[in-house]
Amino acid sequence: MRLKELLDGIEFYQTSESIKDINIVNVEMDSRKVEPGSLFVCIEGYTVDGHNFLQQAIDKGAAAAVISRDVNVSGDIPLIRVRDTGRALAMLSAAYYDYPTTKFPLIGVTGTNGKTTTTYLLDTIFEKQGKKSGVIGSIQVKIGDETFPVNNTTPDALELNRIFHQMQKKETDQVIMEVSSHALDMGRVFGCDYDIGIFTNLSQDHLDYHKDMDDYLRAKSLLFAGLGNDYHQGKKKYAIINEDDASSDLLKRSTAQQVLTYSCKQDADIMAKNIMLSPAGVAFNLVTPIGTVHIKTGLIGMFNVYNMLAASGAAIASKVDLDVIKEALENTKGVDGRFEPINEGQDFSVIVDFAHTPDSLENVLQSSKEFAERKVYVVVGCGGDRDRTKRPLMADVAVKYADHALFTSDNPRTEDPVQILDDMTSHLTEEEATFEVIVDRTEAIKHAVKLAQKDDIILIAGKGHETYQIIGKKKFDFDDRQIAREAIKEKGE
Ligand SMILES: CC(=O)N[C@H]1[C@@H](OP(=O)(O)OP(=O)(O)OC[C@H]2O[C@@H](n3ccc(=O)[nH]c3=O)[C@H](O)[C@@H]2O)O[C@H](CO)[C@@H](O)[C@@H]1O[C@H](C)C(=O)N[C@@H](C)C(=O)N[C@H](CCC(=O)O)C(=O)O
Ligand SMILES: Nc1ncnc2c1ncn2[C@@H]1O[C@H](COP(=O)(O)OP(=O)(O)OP(=O)(O)O)[C@@H](O)[C@H]1O
Ligand SMILES: N[C@H](CCC[C@H](N)C(=O)O)C(=O)O
Ligand SMILES: [Mg+2]
């Protein structure tokens, strides 16, 4: 691709020399991946500044580079100076792949909890409609039946546009993606042409990254503020907003596009009425502007009613028939690692779930408690190098709802696991509740299984679908589901 053509994407810039009409073979943000002919974009990261690797990129044959500050380098290549290289990278990546998001409907889901679940519910609905979706999020990238591993819930702009391009080549009918607050804030999704934005909810998480809850909400609001106005092209855009969440007003005011609200408690465009919760699943009347249907699914818990309303809202905005939505929701299998039962024929229940915030843990524990015939055990920890202030809150929720809490390690990353557990539990007193601290996660799971008696429930929270544990900077194989199965078998022997 010609450099001049690529630069059309960013419009305003200064150059060290007039731009020659040179050929660019690819866009790169990592000097280690630069090839002769690459356009290298210097990104100021959290650990290092990409500007420090410009010389390396030039030595490896970069044809041009995008910078945001002066750098002393030797080598005669055009240096293109912009204010924000993160956003420039997003526009250059979109330009390089010929603006893929203008070529299919793009649905973005943001919120603290429920993003992955909502994307998979929507995937199931579109599949029932006979359409092929691309899905991008925490578990994987999925194109129809093919899946690919991911590092981030929302990949960086370069990777993201590459994935979009691949999805477009494979003729996906629409793309459904999780949009994390980090991605919105860092400009990873800058320039993406969303057709529908969905808001699930806002509660405490990521206060290691965001200054406070207002800053976190401001990042989320960018998805709705960024719903571009394409009315002149006959393209309608929608914000699907959870009316029952305290942040709904601000988010409704953040967009200039059509809003569809959903609620379980009050008047809204899409409502769940006569909700019946049971250990076998939830049933409710889905009341919508295009009619009312009764839904009876195997999904557990009030929080999943919200996820189903969010997915239904986006499906309705995408002109999917109500009977298709009903059939899909009634036959959904549930999502990997979300309230996933582990059944080895034991007479107590074991559930693996991805709750890793105070609010999600409260939701799943509340649901477990409602249906428990006897005791509820919870095995839970907190991730290292993540929001420290959520640690005591998660422990509070655990001791409030569970009859016995086993606090253990999640992904300690570069932190000391004992310190993380101390952050969680140092304020708790033995009189308040019964709890134990077992640093080794395998031991904690095995201990819970040993303690459980007939009709008890063990909730193993925080890692869900993850098949690894991150200790230091290394990933080790680790799967809560596999360990729970082994523990149940050992107990039966
Ligand atoms: C805090 C954060 O989000 N960091 C992300 C960021 O890493 P970073 O800022 O540390 O990057 P860096 O290593 O300092 O490098 C800066 C630049 O120098 C370049 N570089 C670096 C070394 C070198 O030799 N040459 C070189 O050119 C790098 O390629 C990069 O362009 O950019 C990386 C590449 O895009 C991301 O993978 C990384 O996510 C890390 C792994 C992470 O843990 N992120 C979490 C917090 C996150 O984003 N989570 C959200 C989901 C949360 C949720 O689901 O609720 C997500 O969307 O995943
Ligand atoms: N709507 C909801 N409200 C509150 N809690 C929820 C909701 N949906 C799911 N949960 C809980 O949150 C956990 C994570 O759900 P899910 O993976 O769908 O969220 P996510 O927003 O994608 O999370 P992440 O930020 O890690 O990507 C589930 O395992 C469940 O415990
Ligand atoms: N997307 C979330 C996932 C957290 C999962 C939990 N197991 C942890 O490691 O804290 C994050 O990166 O903050
Ligand atoms: Mg997710």
From TrEMBL:
The modification N6-carboxylysine is found at residue 220. Meso-2,6-diaminopimelate binds at residues 386, 410-413, 462, 466. GO terms for cellular component: cytoplasm. A motif (Meso-diaminopimelate recognition motif) lies at residues 410-413. Residues 24-97 form the Mur ligase N-terminal catalytic domain. Its cofactor is Mg(2+). Carboxylation is probably crucial for Mg(2+) binding and, consequently, for the gamma-phosphate positioning of ATP. Keywords: ATP-binding, Cell cycle, Cell division, Cell shape, Cell wall biogenesis/degradation, Cytoplasm, Ligase, Magnesium, Nucleotide-binding, Peptidoglycan synthesis. Residues 109-315 form the Mur ligase central domain. GO terms for molecular function: ATP binding; magnesium ion binding; UDP-N-acetylmuramoylalanyl-D-glutamate-2,6-diaminopimelate ligase activity. Pfam families: Mur_ligase (PF01225), Mur_ligase_C (PF02875), Mur_ligase_M (PF08245). Pathway: Cell wall biogenesis; peptidoglycan biosynthesis. It is found in: Cytoplasm. It comes from the Bacteria. It catalyses: UDP-N-acetyl-alpha-D-muramoyl-L-alanyl-D-glutamate + meso-2,6-diaminopimelate + ATP = UDP-N-acetyl-alpha-D-muramoyl-L-alanyl-gamma-D-glutamyl-meso-2,6-diaminopimelate + ADP + phosphate + H(+). ATP binds at residues 111-117. Its main location: cytoplasm. Its EC number is 6.3.2.13. Residues 337-464 form the Mur ligase C-terminal domain. HAMAP family: MurE. Catalyzes the addition of meso-diaminopimelic acid to the nucleotide precursor UDP-N-acetylmuramoyl-L-alanyl-D-glutamate (UMAG) in the biosynthesis of bacterial cell-wall peptidoglycan. Belongs to the MurCDEF family. MurE subfamily. This is UDP-N-acetylmuramoyl-L-alanyl-D-glutamate--2,6-diaminopimelate ligase. The gene is murE_2.
